[in-house]
Amino acid sequence: MISTGGPCLFQVRRGEGTPVYYDIFVEKKKGMHFFEITIFNKIPLFKCKKCEKIQEEYIDEETNFCFDCLEEKNKPTVACIEWMDPLMIAGNWIPEMVEIAGGKNILGKSGNDSHWIKIEELINKDPDIIIFLPCGFNIKKTQGELKLILKKNDGWKKLKAFKNNKFFVADGNQFFNRPGPRLIESLEIFAEIIHPKIYNFKHEGAGWIKYYD
């Protein structure tokens, strides 16, 4: 159905029938018997299969669900480490970004400062994924420090993330330690790490690596 009074969403089809939404403006000209249709936003908007809301942001291409609707079992638990010795969990904007990228943040508190924790707290939560993004460190520096920490404390090796090769090292200095335009790339890095079968923005190697002891 087409509205004659203002902007509405008009459904079109792309590829093999995937619905894509465009903003259009439909107006009936005075004294005329036809409608004038103007497309003013050609950026596709995606409809979540579950909640049926129109999404302008990332959507899970495997399920066609927005991330708010992803089942909990599809959202791996993620811990982001801002400092390794003593151990500090990342806060501020990092926990929210993890959630947006399709993960379930643990230990970090969105909007609050990063804070110190004990390794026993991390072992108790036993996250699926651990991402190391120390303040001011690049990948090489973080990788070297992490290697020393693992030799110093065997508690890290009790974690299922370690056993399942789900330790990741990111460039904290470039992408995560300060708010700014590069946070878009930071979000892409999180999405690649958390959902590698879905996302590939080609940041691996430069923005993050998998850690192997």
Task: Compute the number of structural domains.
Answer: 2
CATH class of the largest domain: Alpha Beta
| Helix coverage percent | 10-25%
User: Which whole number gives the mean pLDDT?
Assistant: 77
Q: Give me the CATH architecture of the largest domain, please.
A: 3-Layer(aba) Sandwich
Query: Radius of gyration from the CA trace?
Result: 22 Å
Largest sheet: number of strands, sense, barrel closure: 7 strands, mixed
Helix tally?
6
Termini separation: 60 Å
* CATH H-tier superfamily of the largest domain: Nitrogenase molybdenum iron protein domain
Along the chain, the helix and strand elements come as EEEEEEEEHEEHEHHEHHE
- Count the E strands: 13
CATH overall fold name of the largest domain: Rossmann fold
Unreliable segments of 5+ consecutive residues? 1-43
What amount of the residues lies in strands? Answer: 25-35%
